[in-house]
# Entry
Amino acid sequence: MALFSRVALPGDVPALVALEHQCFSSDRLSSRSFHWMIGRAHGQLLVAEQDGQLLGYALVLFRRRSRLARLYSIAVADHARGLGLGKQLLSHVEACGVTHGCAHLRLEVRTDNPGALALYERNGYRRFAVVNDYYADHTSALRLEKTLVRPPA
# Structure
């Protein structure tokens, strides 16, 4: 699959919102949130598209004066699943983290999302905490982390 990845633009917001509704039943990012993430957030919102159609996105946030990045959200369109797009987006986010001088990337994943959990663990993320009642529907989250670059000895 020939994909094109790039930084999201304000014109992508309607497609991002539609993808958000397709992928998540709660805890969705709004149009306003996407606009803020594109224009003002200390992070990077990457989109993947094919033939002008948005197939997925990944949002990574950076902390000022910190070597820790956070994968805030990642989504892949139903019809594009199983093609390796999640792994590609994750690799792009990790590269962004390294570019921003981050040593670690952290994320939260629903305990009832085995597909996402498998993706992260296959790509070197390790579990380090459970947070009960994390999501709006009271589902727990697993916290995972990956070391992006080794700190100097």
In short: The chain has one domain: 4-147.
